Amino acid sequence: MTTPPVASDLNLCLCHTCGMACDMTHEPHECERCGAPLHRRKTNSLTRTWAYMLAALVFYIPANLLPVMNTKMVGNGADSTIMSGVLEFWQHGAWDIALIIFIASIAVPGIKFVAITLLLVTVQRDSLWARQERSKLYRFVEVIGYWSMLDVIVVALVASLVKFQALADIEPRPGILFFGLVVVFTMLSAMSFDPRLIWDATGEHPHIEEVKDEATSH
Prior knowledge:
This protein is mostly helical. The protein has helices at 45-65, 82-91, 95-124, 131-145, 150-162, 174-192, 206-217; strands at residues 12-14, 21-23, 69-73, 76-80, 168-172. This is Paraquat-inducible protein A.
């Protein structure tokens, strides 16, 4: 049974902008249809993914510790963090809004941090473990990334609703800015990861083999 050739065997590259299969034998490496630069792989994929994810993790701390909004009722103001806002909505019976904020602000970023870290570590260890499942995990991270701005949208909607009341007012606080940065950097991290690296794994660990070779030579 003959194995069909892959794109690299035919010297073809898929344009990330328009999706056209382009010939890489000629210079410059640009898409014939849209003129976008062509890359066989995402450049410095692991380095950029680690950098974006660590930056998101740093911003995630103040995003949860600092208040995201200030609510004033009859002249009395109170700051609310993400978690205190969830509890407040839950106590007032708005469990649906509380659930949306909790999933979008606490659960989704946490899942993305764990999933991207797992992908990075297994790729760097040249692991053959559950490659198909890890590919599905990457696609899942991409999908949930688009829903990460739900918390910011909810705050904006709540603010617009409260504005209609004469005795109430609501204002954003610095925490919402840090949370927005978390969303942006986690999305950049997922976009920088090249899932094809999962299938490049051979099960060998070059660094371990080098240590063994040095030990035997001495």
